Amino acid sequence: QLRMPRFLYVGSGTPAQSTVHDSPAYGSLSPPTACKCIKIYESLDEGILRRVGAVDLDTHIGWLTPHPHNGKIYGVGSGKLRAFHVDSDGMLREFSAADTLGNAVYLELSTDGRWALVANYSAATLAVLPIHADGTVGAATDSKHHAISTNPALADRQEACHPHQIMLDPNGGRWALVCDLGADKVFVYAFDSGRGSLVGAMNSNRHLVFPEGAGPRHL
């Protein structure tokens, strides 16, 4: 029986020294070896990965996710949502891009494949962008800006709001849950899949509040 190839796609991060005290360095590659690319591997038998190539880009890609239906790959990096076509040999070709309204660090696609939800870390914003029938992406249909007071004593990555993840609940995708590292909260918004919008106030009692300094990052 002919075995269909299976490919693994690895996005690149920005090299940097850690700013967190007493923690391992994050992004320890030196700038000359940094790759603004997506590396491509084929998954062989017995768990072996074989590198088959890379797609050079003009930026780093911090998050990649496959579309649930159309066979495309979507990624975020440097303020853009990017769409890639997958060739038969596993190589990627970018064919569409749109502004995420900030420096996106996380990407979630709705189960129907019509929407991309993005968390922008430094800008403290969330954005919803449409994915059209042909796989191209459009301008944001909605956004939210997190802005609440924070404790100056927790200035190490908690000097302001920092949305780190946005995900839809697995039971129908009616709710969007947002881990905000800076706010010590998981914000819970209703997701209107008809309009592509996040519904709810920042002071809603629906949000999950964590102890000061907890810094939730992922669910």
TrEMBL record:
<dbReference type="GO" id="GO:0017057">
    <property type="term" value="F:6-phosphogluconolactonase activity"/>
</dbReference>
<dbReference type="Pfam" id="PF10282">
    <property type="entry name" value="Lactonase"/>
</dbReference>
<dbReference type="InterPro" id="IPR011045">
    <property type="entry name" value="N2O_reductase_N"/>
</dbReference>
<comment type="similarity">
    <text>Belongs to the cycloisomerase 2 family.</text>
</comment>
<dbReference type="InterPro" id="IPR050282">
    <property type="entry name" value="Cycloisomerase_2"/>
</dbReference>
<dbReference type="InterPro" id="IPR019405">
    <property type="entry name" value="Lactonase_7-beta_prop"/>
</dbReference>
<dbReference type="InterPro" id="IPR015943">
    <property type="entry name" value="WD40/YVTN_repeat-like_dom_sf"/>
</dbReference>
<protein>
    <recommendedName>
        <fullName>6-phosphogluconolactonase</fullName>
    </recommendedName>
</protein>
